[in-house]
């Protein structure tokens, strides 16, 4: 059963996150591992790998809407000091 | 998914087949789609909170690192493991219904629920620790407002707040607002998940599921896996922010 392999893999990656890298790499590594784990859960535990295109479309829509929510909000907050306060 | 609409079998319909569906397969697909659309709304709901976390984390990095280091990483990691195993037992429960093994289904469902309750228990311990250290933000607990003891340099008391350069207590409180909002909402979803599992367990006990009809187990499994995924993202963001600073860095 591939499930056992997945479970062990995710367990190990939790441990891997303990070995820290200095600097901003930390967040990148942690989030990458989290995304990989989530992808495995979605594809295999939630059977999305074997699901029809409509389910795929719904998931891609969620990612799309998350992306624009994050992108547009960041574009506001992170450009606030680009212009001088008049 | 051609078999959904094109298949027309002439046989006595399954007792669980609702009249507005052509066949069991279409009913199952509709149910699955419905749960996925609901999960998308949940993704956006938690997404908003993740967005708030990201904005404030970059606004007050020192405070967030200090506050994150105060969380118990062992309990957080334990909870992560517990939830991943519970997702595994949930997947096994779904698999057991697909092959018609009622006893295995019931055992897997009970294991999933025990693990879910374990997660909530560990969370309760963590929340109690925060209560003791007076880290529950604002006046959420009216008789114990946010008022942590800040450690002086050289003091290694784990119950005191160790602020790194540039962190203020006010911004640490902001971290704890987000911490309690996100983990609290997540815990609420766990509790609801346990309720759903109770219903599914009772249905399984009564022999309602079979290889032909196990959609409720699958769909509840989707909800459970989703709650696990939220935690998979919560754990590194809340607990693992500044650990590299702890190791003598």
If you had to describe this structure to a student in words, what would you say it looks like?
The complex is a heterodimer of chains A (86) and B (249). Chain A is mostly helical. Chain A folds into 2 domains: 50 residues; 35 residues. Chain A has 3 helices and no strands. The N and C termini of chain A lie far apart (64 Å). Chain B has one domain: Cytochrome c oxidase, subunit III, four-helix bundle (Four Helix Bundle (Hemerythrin (Met), subunit A), Up-down Bundle), CATH 1.20.120.80. Chain B has 8 helices and no strands. In chain B, helix 4 runs antiparallel to helix 7 and helix 5 packs antiparallel against helix 6. Helix content of chain B is 70%, strand content 0%. The chains are: A mainly alpha (86), B mainly alpha (249). Chains A and B meet through helix 1, helix 2 and helix 3 of A and helix 2, helix 4 and helix 7 of B.
Key attributes of the depicted protein:
heterodimer; A: 2 domains; B: 249 residues; mainly alpha
Portion in helices of chain B? 55-70%
Helix and strand string of chain B, N-terminal first? HHHHHHHH
Bulk shape of chain B: elongated
- Strand tally of chain A: 0
Domain count of chain A: the total is 2
């Amino acid at each position: 059963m591939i499930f056992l392999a997945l479970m062990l893999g995710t367990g190990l990656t939790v441990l891997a996150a303990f070995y820290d890298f200095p600097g901003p790499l930390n967040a990148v590594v942690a989030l990458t591992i989290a995304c990989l784990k989530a992808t495995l859960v979605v594809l295999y535990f939630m059977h999305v790998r074997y699901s029809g295109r409509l389910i795929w479309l719904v998931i891609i829509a969620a990612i799309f809407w998350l992306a624009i929510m994050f992108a547009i909000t960041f574009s506001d907050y992170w450009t606030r000091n680009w212009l001088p306060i008049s | 998914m051609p078999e959904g609409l094109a298949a027309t079998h002439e046989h006595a319909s399954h007792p669980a087949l609702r009249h507005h569906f052509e066949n069991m397969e279409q009913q199952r697909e509709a149910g699955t789609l419905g749960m996925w659309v609901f999960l998308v709304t949940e993704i956006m709901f938690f997404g908003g909170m993740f967005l708030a976390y990201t904005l404030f984390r970059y606004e007050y990095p020192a405070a967030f690192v200090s506050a994150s280091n105060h969380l118990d990483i062992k309990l957080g990691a334990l909870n992560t493991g517990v939830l991943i195993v519970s997702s595994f037992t949930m997947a096994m429960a779904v698999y057991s219904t697909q092959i018609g093994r009622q006893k295995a289904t019931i055992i897997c469902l009970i294991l999933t629920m025990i693990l879910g309750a374990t997660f909530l228990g560990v969370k309760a311990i963590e929340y109690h620790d925060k209560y003791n250290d007076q880290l529950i933000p604002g006046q959420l607990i009216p008789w114990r407002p946010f008022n942590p003891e800040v450690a002086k340099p050289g003091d290694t008391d784990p119950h005191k707040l160790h602020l790194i350069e540039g962190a203020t207590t006010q911004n640490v409180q902001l971290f704890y607002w987000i911490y309690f909002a996100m983990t609290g909402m997540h815990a609420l979803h766990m509790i609801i998940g346990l309720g759903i599992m109770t219903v599914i367990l009772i249905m399984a006990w009564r022999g309602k599921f079979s290889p032909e009809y196990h959609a409720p187990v699958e769909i509840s499994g989707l909800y459970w896996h989703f709650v696990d995924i939220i935690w998979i993202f919560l754990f590194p963001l809340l607990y693992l922010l500044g650990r590299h600073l702890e190791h003598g860095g």
